[in-house]
TrEMBL record:
Regions that span the bilayer: 67-88
Name of the protein described by the UniProt record: ODP domain-containing protein
Residue ranges of domain ODP in the record: 7-60
Claim: Magnesium is one of the keywords in the record: no
Keyword match Membrane: yes
Pfam families given in the database record: ODP
Species the sequence originates in: Acinetobacter bereziniae
Keywords: Membrane, Transmembrane, Transmembrane helix
Length: 89
């Protein structure tokens, strides 16, 4: 990959759009205020899967009645030069 990670970020407009991914595109669906301000969902038209909600959260069973939620950052690798970082809170 050439350049630093800042040069490889793709800005998402508020109205959504699409992101090139190999031979296809991922559709960016605006879902503002459904989870948080500036929330987006991602739709893959090939597999017909909508990536939405708290994707990226990991639920771990710590004890019988205790759950721990670990927020992570979801990285969508677009191609060899672009990476989208979507913070999941």
């Amino acid at each position: 990959m050439k350049g630093g990670w800042l040069e490889r970020l793709i800005e998402l407009p508020d109205q959504g759009g699409s992101i090139p991914l190999g031979e296809t595109r991922i559709i960016v669906v605006p879902a503002h205020f459904l989870h948080s301000v500036g929330n987006f969902q991602f739709y893959d038209p090939i597999s017909k899967i909508l990536f939405s909600g708290d994707m990226g959260h990991l639920l771990l069973m710590m004890r019988l009645h205790q759950l721990m939620i670990l927020p992570v950052i979801f990285l969508l690798c677009v191609d060899s030069t672009n990476v989208i970082c979507v913070p999941i809170v």
